[in-house]
Amino acid sequence: MFADAGVVALLKEKFVAVAVDEWYQHRQKDAEGDFYRKVVYQGPHNKPDQTTQGLYVFAPDGTLLGYTNHRSPERVKATLEKALEKFAATDAAAPEDSGKRDAAFARTPPEGGFVADVTSKVLGGYKAPKNAWQKAYQEALGRDHLWVTRDEAAALERGELASPLARRIARFHLVDNTRGEPPMWRAEDVRTLDVALRDGRLAGRVKLETSSGDRGFEGEIRGVVVAKDGAVTRFDLVARGEFWGEGRYTPNAPAGRFPLAVSIRLADAKDTARAVPPQGARDAMDYLRAR
Amino acid sequence: MLALVAAMLVQLSDEEFARLHQDLAPPAGETWRSIPWKLAMLEARDAAAREKKPAFVWSMNGHPLGCV
Asked: What is the pTM of this model?
């Protein structure tokens, strides 16, 4: 829907756009969460145990002006235009006090560390797509962010790869997130992780597999790490291997073993999306410790 | 499929590394990136009040800008 020039132009000119992971906002016990629930509970999903995913339009006082969960540009455009008509008839109320943020749901990139962009792609193995949506899923890039702590960044500058960083990459980023939210790997799923950094070149092998064997990844990791003037200036990694299995929210994977690649690079400091926490950071302690 | 899997067994060369790293880079100029997204409801609410506009929320389980 955001590939449609008309939708994008409308949003840029007539709306303030916000993107949220409802896992956080729906649960937060603070002004942010209260306001989110106030808005979305006016729509069709109004229970704490229901997903509230969708596209909403609201006035600054929290009045819901429109909702759809359809992704076709026509439906989205119609929802936006109808909401604009309703908005013209309402007053924009003054914002309320924001209050304190619920610390249990606050996620900020590690101070002194850095953020990297992570992308993944299924390289083959799918049957011919039956429709445009299926084709889009099959060709999609999975995206996420990797957080690197201050100590791990300092180790990289010294030419060393800290074990928690290697394990974090393996457990939380060598996943197939091209069709939706993937299950992460448990600590015990890491069967082999033999990765070393020498003279700025990172190389090794990894094998990840669930206890039942229904899901796994086995492959190779390579990378180039450059540090200059006390900062990591290049962090290019590629993992390529065979993946098998799927998760509850990543159905319709290719049958059997299929080729998957994951790529990592430093995030653009000017990119707003850089502040979006890694998917695995919902359990922030587990993500950062990465045992 | 067999050829693809067989290719996985071959060591990742410098050329393959560079090609995959390039191929998996997010495309430049993606339209959705040109939208000035806010990342919090209250930030959007306050901006909407200032600019006298309605706010549009893209809510997903898994952050939309993380694009999982």
From this structure: 0.90
Q: How many beta-carbon contacts under 8 Å exist across A and B?
A: 237
- What gap in Å lies between CA A27 and CA A76, rounded to an integer? 26
Whether the CB-CB separation of A170 and A184 falls below 8 Å is answered with no
- For residue A71, the chain B residue with the least C-alpha distance is B58
Give the Cα separation of A14 and A27 in Å (integer): 29
Dihedrals phi, psi of A270, to nearest 5 degrees: -90, -5
The two structure tokens encoding residue A94: 């003054």
pLDDT in tens, A164-179: 999 999 999 999 999 9
Handedness of CA A211, A279, A246, A218 (dihedral sign): negative
Whether the Cβ atoms of residue A245 and residue A272 lie closer than 8 Å to each other: no
Of A56, A62, A180, the CB nearest to B68: A180
Complex ipTM value: 0.88
pLDDT digits (tens, 9 = 90+) for A118-156: 999 999 999 999 998 889 889 999 999 999 999 999 999
Selection from A281, A17, A223, A279 nearest residue B47 by Cα: A17
* Residue in A5, A59, A238 closest to B20 by CB: A238
Where are the alpha helices (H) located in chain B, listed in sequence order? 2-8, 14-23, 41-51
Residue of B nearest to A122 (CA): B24
Q: Give the distance from residue B56's alpha carbon to the nearest chain A alpha carbon, in angstroms.
A: 4
Contact B36, B55 (CB under 8 A): no
In a mutagenesis test of the A interface, which of B24, B43, B53 is the best target, namely the one with the most A β-carbons within 10 Å?
A: B24
